[in-house]
Each structure stands twice: as C-alpha cells, then as structure tokens.
Amino acid sequence: KQEVTQIPAALSVPEGENLVLNCSFTDSAIYNLQWFRQDPGKGLTSLLLIQSSQREQTSGRLNASLDKSSGRSTLYIAASQPGDSATYLCAVRGYNNNDMRFGAGTRLTVKP
Amino acid sequence: NAGVTQTPKFRVLKTGQSMTLLCAQDMNHEYMYWYRQDPGMGLRLIHYSVGEGTTAKGEVPDGYNVSRLKKQNFLLGLESAAPSQTSVYFCASSYWRGGAGELFFGEGSRLTVL
Fold this sequence. Notes:
The structure holds 2 protein chains of 2 kinds. By secondary structure, chain A is mainly beta.
C-alpha cells in the first residue's frame, strides 16, 4: 500500500525567503505526482503535475522535482510572499491504482 | 468552464437521516472520485468511477453508496448518517490516466451529522 508523507507538518518563514517542501512515498512504481495548494475552507488547486518520466516541472516561482528511485519529491518556492500562505499537499498515482494517495500536507505561513 | 461543481456546499443532518451529494464536471473526464478530508488524516478515497455506469470502492467506503448514471455526474449517498461521517467531502475528476491524469477538485461540501 502506498504511503505518502510530508514533513514538516507546519512551516513558518519570513517574506522573501526561498523554501523547500518535502514529499516522500513508499512505492516507487508511480504514474505521476501532483502538488496542490489548499486555502482554508477551500478546495484543492493544482499547482504542478510531474509524470513518472519527468524529473521536474516549473511554473512561475514554483519548481517541483521528482526522484522516483529514492521515493521523494520537493516543491521549491522562490521569494516567498504572504499570499503563498496555505496548506500544500502532494499526491501520487501508482501504476496499479486508479486513485491518488495524498500526504497530510504542510501548512505554510509566510510572515510579512 | 465551471470545472467541478459540488452541491450542496453545506448540510446539517441528524443521525439516521439520508442525503445525496451531487458532483458535476464539464470537462468530459472519464474518472471521477469522492474523497473525505478530516483534520490530521489528509484526504481519503471513498469511492471512484472509471466511466459511466461503473463504480468501485476506495479506502473508506463503508456507510456510503455511489452512482454514475451519466458521464458528467457522480453522486455520493449516505443512507443512514452517523456522527463519524461529519467531514468535508471533495469530488474530483481526471482524464483516463493515459491522458496525463491530472486531478481537478470541486470546492467541497461540509457535512455535519448531529
């Protein structure tokens, strides 16, 4: 059974800092990995999707990397802003599963 | 495009009552999912569907039923609500995984069972 872990559970940084969020998974036979953002009381917004054949994806100040062999993905946020404050979740889709397994998320606070 | 739409957004039930949550997507996605989100437990899959007329159990299916009579709609039913079903429910959809498989979510339905 695929297990997805996100550490730390919460992170607080000053505005302007570059930061890295971590996601690890136990089964490396994945089809893709997706990073989401969730604001309080809202749904999940897709940030980046990395296919198993890719090493990284970039969108604006966000960069996500994937290392299947070590079962890890990182989400890099450059020049953080207070508007980046939210919970960030990663999810993996396995080759043998029709669903995606989620981590519990990292709650990010960026202080002005 | 509206994307994924869930109704209702809020609902309060008494123990033993029944209700249905409706999910509609306008992206012509084959796959549809129902998740529940509870504090400290992340999102857990309840049921999913890989196409019209099909349904399958996820990680926590007990106490729920689903139907997919039309490709664009996926219904989640609670026949006899229990306080343990107090949660936020999210519907999601995606193409068949051969088409990238990116997951798109609705805004959620907050259910309280008294």
